[in-house]
Each structure stands twice: as C-alpha cells, then as structure tokens.
Amino acid sequence: MRPDTPAENVDHTAEAARLERTAGLYPEDAEALLLQAAAHLELSGDRPAATTLYDRLLSSQAGLENPYLVRSLKASNLWEYGHEAEARAIIDGVRAGSPRDPAPWVIVAEALESHDELEAAQETFTEGATVLLTGVEEPPYSTHPLLFGRHRVRRMLGVAHDEWDTVADLLHSSPVSLDELHDPKRVWSLGSDNPAELAAEISRLRAELGAYREALSRPFPVAVLHWPAGELAELVEAYPSLGAEYPSHEEHLATIEGSLRELAASGTPNLGIVTGTVPSYEAFAASEGASPGEAELLPQYATTLAARGRAVEWPPQRGAGCWCGSGRVYEGCHGA
C-alpha cells in the first residue's frame, strides 16, 4: 500500500493532493486512492495530515471495504509521531476483531516490532496465522508476509522453530535461507572489516532486494467479473443485448465459481474477483469509445478493475464471507 519511491525523487505532498482530487472524481475508488494519498503524506513527514485522511475514511458514511486495514495503518502512523497510547488501543482493537485479511495483522505486528515490542509482535503474527491458516493446506500468497514476519521476530527472540516456521522456510524461494536473512547477528557484519563477512552480507542484501522486486512486480490477478443482483438487473434492463450473457443472477454466480475452479485446476495462479457497477461500467465504455451493450467490453472492464487494485483474492481466506455477498462464509456458500 505504501509507495516505494524515495522522497527526494517525488513531491509527496503534491502527489497526495492529486490523489485526493482523483478520489473526488472516482468515489468508487476513493478508499484505495485516499490510502495511497495518506502514504504519500507519511513519506513527506506530514503524519498529522495522514491521520486526518485515515479519520476521514473511518468516518465515511459509505462502508469501507477493509476498515481493519485503515485502522492498522492509522495506528502505525500515530505511533511514529508520539501517540503511542492511542496506537496501542487501535492495535488491540484490530487484534480483537480477528480480520480475515492478512495485511492488518502484518501492519500492526510490524508496528510493534519496530518499537522493540518483540514478544507482542510475535503474539500478533501468531494470532494472525492461527486465524487465517488453521486447517489450510497451502498458505495463499497474501499470507506469506505474515509467516515471514513471524519467522523474523522469532529469530530475534531466539526461540526454536515450530511448524509454521518450517512452512515459512518452504515458501521462501530466495537462494539465501530465511534463517540467514533473519539472523540477529547480521547487524554485526555491517561494521565488520572482514571482506568475507561483507561479501556475504552483500549477497544477503541482493537476495532481499530480489524478493522485494518479485513482490512489487507480481501481476494483478486474473479476475472474473461479478455483478451484484441489483446491478445486474439494472445492467440488463438498460442494455438488453447483454441478457444472453446473463440469463439469471443465480446462473451468473454459478458461472463465476465454475470458471474460477476450472482456471485453478488448469494451474492458473493469482485468481480474483472484481465487482462491477453500472455507472463505473458506463464510464469505462465511454472512455473506450464503445457501447456498454457490447459483450466484448466486459472482459476488458474486468481487467481494468483488476489493474486498478479492485480484485479480491479467490478463494477467500478460510472462514471469510463468500464473495457473492450472501453474508455466509465461503465454505458454506459457493465454496461448498
């Protein structure tokens, strides 16, 4: 979520202002755009202004897609400029809420870690892993930072490896092992006069840089387009030619789940679902100079939403609500 561009190469204040203006033009993307704006403000050093944006999101009348993410980012930011008590209270609330998204767990755990609260950080990483990965055979990609962060903190604490540490080791694809990257003694090699130790540290840094680059270059998901019942009814009424694509809402939902399972069975990684709205789709069609009634436009619209970060991971995390919006957990709905 946070820009990875050095402050000296970007006017972060101006970029934050641009993102705020864009959020006003595209309210359906306001949450993602304002989070990016807040990150730019943090990088510019204006942390109080970033907190104002987080508060603006949390007080919004429209429901947030990921309120725990916003709260965790706010807590991390508050602690950085002296509001420790409020940050701790928010972190406690995030942990108590047991979010089904790995990102809030990672953010609050790393906030604790960065302030030398290693025991609390390890407990938070472990709670997140317990909530999200109990009974899961293959940890989803989005949970890897949770396991890697837990491994790092436990190495700093000097505790013995457990089952999840072993899983983290297996998931780690770098030629330099996690045990070596997370070795607390690495800090001493940076001040060493021994050429061999310095060369080894350079190799470790290159391995870490490669992992960061791989994460940043990870493509957006292969996403399938989902229409809520009301939106689909409005779409077909406005553009009857699309009725052939969507005979009924129930069939539409079944087609989504079936398509994703076929893609997964064929070995396609990084799958997701994007949810469309009629105004957003009409705006997209206008930008393409095409008619919204053209069925060929639908896959392009889905790809554009995915590229804008609107996709949610499929399958959902264990115990998470179903992607269809029924209010039931995925395992008891379309995941049955």
Structure description:
- The structure is a single chain.
- By secondary structure, the protein is mainly α.
- Helices cover 60% and strands 4% of the residues.
- It contains 16 helices and three strands.
- It has helices at residues 12-25, 30-44, 47-58, 67-80, 84-97, 102-114, 118-133, 144-157, 163-171, 178-181, 186-189, 195-216, 229-238, 249-265, 278-288, 297-307, and strands spanning 222-226, 271-275, 312-313.
- It has a three-stranded mixed sheet with strand order 1-2-3, sandwiched between helices.
- The longest helix has 22 residues, at 195-216.
- The relative contact order is 0.07.
- Mean pLDDT is 87; it is low at 1-5.
Structure annotation, total helices:
16
Estimated helix fraction: 55-70%
Main sheet characteristics: 3 strands, mixed
By DSSP, the count of extended strands is: 3
The computed structural class is mainly alpha
Strand line-up across the major sheet: 1-2-3
Oligomeric state of the chains?
Answer: single chain
Mean pLDDT over all positions: 87
Radius of gyration: 22 Å
InterPro entries: TPR-like_helical_dom_sf
Protein name: SEC-C domain-containing protein
Organism: Streptomyces coacervatus
Keyword list:
single chain, 336 residues, mainly alpha, three-stranded mixed β-sheet, 16 helices, 60% helix, globular, disordered N terminus
Q: Which SSEs are present, and which pair or pack?
A:
Blueprint: H1 12-25, H2 30-44, H3 47-58, H4 67-80, H5 84-97, H6 102-114, H7 118-133, H8 144-157, H9 163-171, H10 178-181, H11 186-189, H12 195-216, E1 222-226, H13 229-238, H14 249-265, E2 271-275, H15 278-288, H16 297-307, E3 312-313
Parallel strand pairs: 1-2
Antiparallel strand pairs: 2-3
Helix pairs in contact: 1-2, 2-3, 3-4, 4-5, 4-6, 6-7, 6-8, 7-8, 8-9
